[in-house]
Design goal:
It catalyses: thymidine + ATP = dTMP + ADP + H(+). With about 200 residues, the chain is an alpha/beta fold. It has a single domain, classed as Rossmann fold. The chain has five helices and eleven strands, in the order βαββββαβαβαββββα. The strands form three sheets. A six-stranded parallel sheet has the order 5-2-6-7-1-8, with helices on both faces. Strands 10-9-11 form a three-stranded antiparallel sheet. A hairpin with a 2-residue loop joins strand 9 and strand 10. Helix 2 crosses helix 3 and helix 3 runs parallel beside helix 4. The protein binds zinc ion. Zinc ion (ZN) binds next to helix 5.
């Protein structure tokens, strides 16, 4: 039975690298995969899965109106050769809408194709992204891709947004084209960063 996998990790945890690796493993055996990436948010421009380690892969762009179930089905009917898709891979899955996640469950349950969605869990204000929330609810298997805090040696579970070198904890969830920078951090360093910038409460 196919399953829906949600593999989450914070920034720089190697999620894109993992996608490229999984795709390579299938394709080496002549097994076709589909890679999707949300185009309304992509950091490399719409159609590339880019890993910071320096590999790139073409991806099918997903916009707010894309029906992922219909899209996968259309590739099934047009694909030549073995006429089979062995796996569907999703990059930056946090940016998907609820309907996208429900469509992915249809791909798994009705087409019997495994889906692996990779993405962040919480945003820089520690709110779940819409895609992440719905993946946590719907996924059969949930797995953490671990990385280390930027500032210490604990496991990173959060992300800090920096603007001009200063940590910020307000603003839009998705900031495109700004001069923002994100760092993976542990909870302790996250809290520490904001203690340092917040003004001391006035004492009477
Ligand atoms: Zn830390």
């Amino acid at each position: 039975m196919a399953q829906l996998y949600y593999k989450y990790g914070t920034m720089n945890s190697g999620k894109s690298f993992e996608i490229i690796k999984v795709a390579h493993n299938y394709e080496e055996q002549g097994k076709q995969v589909l890679i999707y990436s949300p185009s309304f948010s992509a950091r490399d421009g719409a159609e590339l899965v880019g890993s910071r380690v320096g590999f790139e892969r073409a991806a099918i762009p997903v916009d707010e109106h894309t029906n992922l179930y219909e899209s996968v089905k259309s590739h099934l009917s047009t694909s030549t050769g073995p006429n089979k898709i062995y796996c569907v891979l999703i990059d930056e899955a946090q940016f998907l809408k609820k309907h996208h996640i429900l469509e992915l469950t249809q791909v798994v349950d009705e087409l019997n194709i495994p889906v692996m969605a990779f993405g962040l869990k919480n945003d820089f204000q520690n709110q779940l992204f819409e895609g992440s929330y719905n993946l946590l609810v719907q996924a059969d298997k949930i797995e953490e891709i671990k990385t280390i805090c930027w500032f210490c040696d604990r496991k990173a579970t959060m992300v800090i947004r920096f603007r001009d070198g200063q940590p910020v904890n307000a603003g839009e969830q998705i900031q495109i084209g700004g001069n923002e920078d994100y760092k993976p951090v542990c909870r302790r360093c996250y809290n520490q960063a904001f203690r340092e910038v917040e003004p001391e409460p006035e004492t009477e």
